[in-house]
Known about the structure:
- By secondary structure, the chain is mostly helical.
- The chain has one domain (5-166): Four Helix Bundle (Hemerythrin (Met), subunit A) (Up-down Bundle), CATH 1.20.120.450.
- It has seven helices and three strands; from the N terminus they run αααβααββαα.
- It has helices at 5-34, 38-42, 53-70, 87-102, 106-112, 131-156, 163-167, and strands spanning 75-76, 116-121, 124-130.
- A hairpin with a 2-residue loop joins β2 (116-121) and β3 (124-130).
Amino acid sequence: MSLSLYEAFVPNCQQVVGALANLIDKGEAFAKDKGISDEDMIGARLAEDMWNLPWHVRSCWVHSAYVISLLPSGEFSPDFTQVPDSWDAMRAQVAATLDGLAKVTPEELEAVADSTIGFVLGGKRLMEFTGQNFLLSFSQPNVYFHATTFYDILRMKGVPLGKRDFMGVPRFKS
């Protein structure tokens, strides 16, 4: 059985990003219950030189729905111009990400699987990939990294979470 690029990428992103909605709800409820300010909770980082919760939500969008929208252009440059600034804004970013992913078709991804995509940062084209390699070896690991870091920040703050909270809803045999 062969696996299409769509099957290898989109459902996994939907599962992990979908789990973020639950993590956001649990993080907000915990903060309210424990009297932790939104500023303290939302601004939390694992280390001083790392990003806070909203950046990780935005990064999951950047490396899933956003990158797919850019593949036909042949260039990817991260967009962090509208980082969420509240629990509701993070929820809205997750919803927008899931909406964008729901609109992707298998044909759309297969059409760009072998085309070249350049990673552009600071106006410089730093790396080139095929669309498939970009999604599977660059974007997908980034989605997992940022979702994991979001989870880890909440755990560091004391939110009682388990592996199932991170995993979201698996795709069971139908």
